[in-house]
## 1
Amino acid sequence: MSVRLEKCPLYCAEGFSNRANALAECKRLAFAGAVADIKMLTEPLILWFDEAGLSLRQAGRKAMGPVRCDFVGGAVRHRRLYGGGKSQTIAKAVGMKGKARPFIADLTAGLGTDASTLAALGCRVVMVERNPIVALLLEDGLARLAAAAKESDELARLSANLSLVTMPAAEWLSCLAADACPDVIYLDPMFPQRRNSAEVNKNMQIFHQVVGCDDDADSLLPLALSKARHRVVVKRPARAPWLAGHEPGLSFAGKSVRFDVYALKKIA
C-alpha cells in the first residue's frame, strides 16, 4: 500500500520558508512551516526542504532517512566514476556495444539510480514515474543536476540525457506514436519487502512505505513488448521468477540481481 501525497506535509529548515512555500504552491503541497528540530515532529512521513534540497524523511527521535534523489554526488557519483563503464552488466543488458547508445525508457524510475548510470554512459533516458512523491524527489534531483551542470561538462552531458515524465507507465506507453517509441524499455518492479529488516537498507524501508509494490508489473510486460523497438530489459532479484511467467531469451546474472532480456530486433 503506497502513501498518498496529501499524507506527507512539507516542512523546512529555518531560513528556507520562502523557497519551501513556493514549492508547495507550485505542487499543491500542504506546507506546514519551518521547524528548528525535526525530531519534535510527530507525523510518520514528511517532505523536508533544506540546503540539500527536497527529501523524504521520517519524523521523531528514532527517524530513519533522509531519502533524496542525488544525480551529482554520493553513491551515484562513485558508480559514474568507478562503476566499470560499458562493462557493467546493466550496459550489456540494454545492448550497449561499440558506439550503440539506445534511447531508453525506464518505466519504474524510482530514485533514478539505474537511469543516471545509463545516461552517464551516453544513452538518452526518459524516466517514467507514477508516484507523485517520488516524482517530486526526481524533479528536485534533476534541478540540482542542472545547476551543477553549469560548472561541469560531464554533468551537462548527463543532464541533457535525462528527462522525466510523471504518469503511469501503461498510460504513457499507450500514448506513444510509433516514431516516438524507445529502443529499449527498462523495468525494475518493486518487489515485496523482505521480512528481515536487517537485509534491507534503512532508507529503502522508507521508500517501500511510499511506493508499495508494483502489483501490476506482470500486465505491463506485454505492453512494453509491443512498444519497444529493440528489446525489453527486466531487472529482477537473482532468484525471483520471470516476470509474468515469461521466459526471457537471455539473462545476465549477478550476485543479487539479474537482467532478463527480451530481444525483439538487433540494435545496430
Note: The chain has two domains: 5-57, 74-263.
## 2
Amino acid sequence: MMWLTDDVRPFVLGGVDDGHGTMGGCAAMTDLSAYRVIGRGRPAWRGFDPGRLPRLSRGLVVACAMWVLIVVLAQRDSGAWVSGKDAISYWAPQLDALYAQAEWTTVGAYVYSPAFLQLVSPLQHLPWLAFVGVWTAMLMFALRFLTGGRLFAIGVLLAAGELIGGNISLLLAVAIVIGFRWPAAWALILLTKVTPGIGLLWFAARGEWRNLSIAIAATVVVIAVSAAVMPWAWPEWIGVLTNIAGRDGTWAAVPIPLLVRLPFAIAVVVWGARTDRRWTVPVACMLALPALWYGGLTMLLAIIVLRDRPRHAGEELPQAFVPVAATEG
C-alpha cells in the first residue's frame, strides 16, 4: 500500500470517522468510490492498458494459428495442400551447387544471387520443419512491422497465400520501408528480385544522390564480399538471369508481361517522388516484379506504413519507427 498518497491512505488503512466514533475503513478497502469522494479517479495501472489487450490478442491468435497450420502442412512431397513451396528454394540448394536447379517457376528452383543464399545458409542446417517454423516466424514479424497491431490479424489473412508459400515479398516490402531511412536496405531487393530496384528512381527523381549512392555502394560491397568467397557463383547467376529474362510466370501470376508493366512502374515512382508520396514506391516495385505473382501483391502492405508524410520537415523516419505505444494507444 505504500504507493498510495497520504490523502488516500486513510480510506484504506485507518478508515474514516463516520461521526459516531466508528471507522468505516473496512468498506473503503473494497469500494473504489472513495476515490471519487476526494476528487480522484480510479488508480491507473502504469504500463497496462486493458483496452489494448483484446486487439493485440486477436492478431496474435490469428498469427499463431496460421503459423501452426503452415508448419503442419509443410512437407516436401507434391500435392495441393502443401506449404513452403517457395521456402524450399532457400533450404534445399547447396552453396557448392547453387544453380543445380534453376528452372524458374518450378518448385525448389533457386534464381537469386549467391549473396542471398550465403545469408540464409545457416538456417539450412535445420531440419525442414524447423526451417519452415523459423522462416514463417520471420515473415510474421515482417508482416507485423508493416501492419502494426491494429491491422495485424487482417494482414495475416490477406497475406495467407504468401505466408503459406514462404516467398520473400514481405521481406522486400520491409526493405522498401526502411530503405527511406537506411538506403543500404535496397541491396536485398537488387540481389534477389532485381527489377523492383526500379524504386531507386525515387532518389534520382528527387535529386537525393547521396541516398542513391549509398544504396548502390552497399550492393557493390555485398557483391565484393560474396564474390571473394564464391567467385565462380556470380557468373553463373548472370547466366541464370539471362536464361529466364522475358519469361512469364505460371497460373499463379497476373498475366501481364514485365515489359508492359515496367513503364507504368517508372511513371508511378517518378510521379510519387515529384509529389512526395512515398507509398508509390512499393506500388512501383510490385509492378516491376519479374512475374507479378499474386503473393507479390502483399508488397502493397507497405502502403500502411508509408501513407503518412513525416511529422517534421526534413524528418526521414517512416511511421513504422514510431514506438508502438504511441501509435496504438
Note: Residues 114 and 233 are 6 Å apart (CA to CA).
